[in-house]
Amino acid sequence: MAENDKPLLIKRYASRRLYNTETSDYVTLEDIARFIRDGREVKIVDLKSGDDLTRQYLLQIIAEHESRGENVLPLTVLTDLVRSYTTQAQSVVPQFLAMSFDMLREGPSRMMEGLTTYPNPMSAMPGFEAMQRQQQAFLKTLMRGWAPPSTKEEEPASTSSELADIKRQLAELQERLSGRK
């Protein structure tokens, strides 16, 4: 197994400091978030007890991002997550979220297609339609600002005209600056 295929082992010392076993240095939560954004799996364990603390630290990273205004999770989704801990929905929520993120990784067209066309074994569950609407709202929020790579032919006309306008303004600025020298 290649080194990047196995999880990066982070050890938490009694002082609560986090130690990267590959680079032999201390890391912060932001470093761990960067590893994950770069596609690396991480595993955080308590040095003394050997307990897996990964879930706890990932939740802490999410909470810190949310508290800084980097809101990915709409308030309604957060509310429903809290509710799921005290209802029978608790048993289906993890699978539902995992399915949503699997579709997100596969791409937006596949994701939206999956929400509407694939037979879903949970569709017979009471309240499934409400959960599906919630999932669609959640995924639309996640997708805001994200677009798949496109070709020149797919570029909207307004983008082309905006680009031409920006080029014209840049040329005017260059003329003004060269006239001042």
Question: What is the fold's blueprint, element by element?
Answer:
Elements: E1 8-12, E2 18-20, E3 25-27, H1 29-37, E4 42-46, H2 54-67, H3 75-84, H4 93-106, H5 108-116, H6 128-143, H7 157-180
Parallel strand pairs: 1-4
Antiparallel strand pairs: 1-2, 2-3
Helix pairs in contact: 4-5
Looking at this protein, list some descriptive labels.
181 residues; alpha+beta; four-stranded mixed beta sheet
**SS field, number of helical segments:** 7
Determine the strand fraction and express it as a percent band.
5-15%
Instruction: Determine the structural class based on helices, strands and strand pairing.
Output: alpha+beta
Give the overall silhouette.
Answer: flat
Largest sheet: 4 strands, mixed
Q: Runs with pLDDT <50, length 5+? A: 148-153
Task: Count the E strands.
Answer: 4
User: What do the pLDDT scores average to?
Assistant: 77
Structural Rg: 23 Å
Distance separating the two termini: 61 Å
Order of helices and strands: EEEHEHHHHHH
Query: How helix-rich are the residues, as a percent range?
Result: 40-55%
Q: Order of strands across the widest beta sheet?
A: 3-2-1-4
